[in-house]
Amino acid sequence: MKQSELMQEAHLHMPQGVAENYRYWGDDKTVFIQHAKGCELTDSDGKTYVDFRLGYGPIILGYQDTRVDAAVIRQIHDSGTLTGFATALDTEVVKQIKALCPQIEKMRFANSGTEAVMGAVRTARGFTKRERIVMVEGGFHGLYDELMWKSDIENWQLGETRAPSVIPFGAGIPAKTRDLVDIIGLNDDEALEHIFRLRGEELACVLLEPIIGNAGSISATPQWLQRLRDLCDANGTLLLIDEVKSGFRVDKGGAQALYGIHADLTTYAKAMGNGYPVAAFGGRAEVMDVIGSQRGAVVHGGTYTANLIGLSAAHATLDILTHTNALQTVHQVGQKVKALLSNVFSRAGLAHAFAGPPSMLGIHFTPEVPQTYRDWRKTDSHLYNLFAWELIARGVMLEPDSREPWFFCEAHSQMDLAWLEDMATLALRAALDKSLK
Ligand SMILES: Cc1ncc(COP(=O)(O)O)c(C=O)c1O
Questions:
Q1: Is 119 in the pocket of ligand 1 (CB under 6 A)?
Q2: Which of 193, 198, 378, 385 lies in the 20 to 30 Å Cα band around 228?
Q3: Contacts by 385-388 with C-beta closer than 8 Å and gap 24+?
Q4: pLDDT in tens, 1-30
Q5: Ligand 1 centre and the CA of 270: distance in Å?
Q6: Which structural domain range is residue 354 located in?
Q7: For residue range 108-160, what is the model confidence (pLDDT) as tens digits?
């Protein structure tokens, strides 16, 4: 069936005709995939794309990586998909993660980033016996009601001194949950000092992505992150770093290895399983040991936790990331694409800046690297959107919103860079023409 027919039929069966909100790109633009291999996708109309979206980041090696897939199939043949009992593999995978991420002493598993964040936040609250959480503007931590509050940047004007309003993602979020959450700006020294002065002793945790994978890889400065670490320590507040996007991608040890600043609790998902559904949270043993079955302990569990599909995929993926140059390859190809795009933009006289590391590259049409989510409003995100759609039309798949970085995987090393440069040049010319109309 053609995409248009698939869309029409899907509307009869699912809200918006899709399995989850973010896949709906409009009736004529929603993509139905029928094949994925390496760094390429083929849609149901037979059109192929080189993919820089990579399912919002989990694909770190490539689609259908035979090393990972074979390990999963072997595991299923050996012991099925789950039994609801412990396995030796549980400990093996934690040991792999501990070898890469020195701040992890104990862990628990989950099936999605959202679930890992929920477990980590509950653990932080259980340990500190406090309820309040601080988040950072532009961050995203999954579709977990309590954290589904965001800064309304679209309706905030540049130059306004007041902070953007905080709004729920949509209907169905209890208004009461707003009372437990504060949002501060990234790299905003004053806001950071103020929130600890105001509520220091009430804060269970500060939850953030130091490289905001959901705001164009805009990144914390090392000084700001260090001050946050110090204030957490001084106030008995836990630092909870969400590495769902950055973990095992920006470095083997995630964003924390790049900064040399370590969290009390960390969440991982996405790249740890190369696209298989697996996630984890962990941190200091003293904190994690608040999880248990005794009265007063934190409860964590779930039928599919540490299921053998996800866990064997994580084991194989982490083994490859640990023992091969896969991540180096990912970084090199990201670096090459960054240089190539910079040439394309410069030839057109277009001011541009890149944010974040090359494996998770934020691309912004603005002269200076954005330092805060509010800076994102200084970028020409409209032109970026036009450029993205022109790229998609030419077989380059990406999210048509500059808040979503470009993701790279090992299989991108096979990509034809000259072709990409041609497509980017043509797409930019077409986007600039449209923007002038
Ligand atoms: C930083 C971060 N945390 C949590 C999540 C939620 O993960 P999931 O979609 O697997 O539930 C995401 C998803 O994009 C994310 O980027």
A1: no
A2: 378
A3: 386/430, 386/431, 386/434, 386/435, 387/427, 387/428, 387/431
A4: 999 999 999 999 999 999 999 999 999 999
A5: 8
A6: 31-60+325-436
A7: 999 999 999 999 999 999 999 999 999 999 999 999 999 999 999 999 998 88
